[in-house]
Amino acid sequence: MSRSSLWTVLLVFAVIAFGCGKKEELKPPEKVVNVTTVQVAARDLPLTESAVGSETWVSQADTYDPTRNLARTFYIRLPFPLDIVRRLKIGQAVTLTNFEDGKKTIGVIREIRPALSTMTQTVEVIAEVKSPGGWRPAGSVRGEVSLEIHRNMPVVPEQSIVLRPAGAVVYVISENVAHAHPVKTGIQREGVVEILEGMQPGWIVAVDGAALLTDGAKVNVRNAAPAPASGKAGTGP
After folding, report:
1. Which residues lie closer than 8 Å to 113 by C-beta, 6 or more apart?
2. How far apart are CA 112 and CA 202, in angstroms?
3. Residue 45 pLDDT > 70, yes or no?
4. % of residues, the chain, pLDDT over 70
5. What angle do CA 109, 103, 139 make, to 5 degrees?
6. What dihedral do alpha carbons 173, 163, 161, 233 form, nearest 10°?
7. How far apart are CA 3 and CA 204, in angstroms?
8. 129, 148, 179, 200 - which has most CB atoms within 10 Å?
């Protein structure tokens, strides 16, 4: 055997030996996302509208009358859009909140003035507060009225709603696996969102960590978040 042939044979054996001794590559560990969860609950949610106004001049004049006691009456001017005013009525409750100190009280609609502001397309609604028990207007005041109530609707925390290119989804957790459910949302209030379509009370959904999930992702459920409200249990996904 020539020297060149010998080197060729040795090279082939070396390649075979290297291939036999090479360790199998280790697969990266499967990604697991840490999440907190909550049970979908059913809740009544009011559909509300608000306007920012201030104390009327008549009310301000009464404030400086030294003969009046603490049981005074205040009048708040609130400019609501015309389409909202059409759904209001005299005597309807109004929640009034001071921007300056955050204090709240409940008043009622005393007057709905017929004139429409051509500049703002709003109508003045006068709210009356009798015997406010220490509350008094402080600068700008926000008035909130309830137009209707959506009853017994599924709600989830705001963090559970994840916006994807195809729309909003909520991840339902079952046996430590996340399942993406497209949803149609409604009223958002006090940290929760109404679900009009795509969700049932009793389902377990991701809260913290939901934005990191994909459909079929493995999850590790940490201490569960408190439920947004009590509701009837439903069937799973």
Report:
1. 123, 124, 125, 126
2. 44
3. yes
4. 74
5. 75
6. -50
7. 74
8. 129
User: 148 — phi, psi (to 5°)?
Assistant: -165, 170
What is the β-pairing status of strands 218-221 and 32-35? parallel
Q: Average the pLDDT over 26-32 and give the result.
A: 69
Tell me how far apart the alpha carbons of residues 37 and 45 are, in angstroms, rounded to a whole number.
22
Residue 46, Cβ neighbours under 10 Å: how many? 14
- Residue 68, burial from CB neighbour count under 10 angstroms (0-12, 13-18, 19+): exposed
Q: What distance in Å separates the CA atoms of residue 37 and residue 224, rounded to the nearest whole number?
A: 5
CA separation for the pair 155, 66 (Å, rounded):
50
Q: What confidence category does residue 1 fall into, taking pLDDT thresholds of 50, 70 and 90?
A: low
Q: Give the three-class secondary structure for 222.
A: coil
Sequence-separated (6 or more) residues with CB below 8 Å from residue 230:
41
| Residue in the block written with tokens 């040795």 | 10
**Tokens 């049970």, located at residue:** 39
Question: What local confidence, expressed as pLDDT, does residue 234 receive?
Answer: 39
Structure tokens at 153: 């609707």
Beta strands in the chain (DSSP E): 32-35, 37-39, 41-55, 73-81, 93-98, 104-116, 122-130, 141-157, 162-164, 167-174, 177-182, 184-189, 192-197, 204-206, 218-221
Amino acid identity of 54? S
Let me know the angle formed at the C-alpha of 196 by 193 and 198, rounded to the nearest 5 degrees: 100
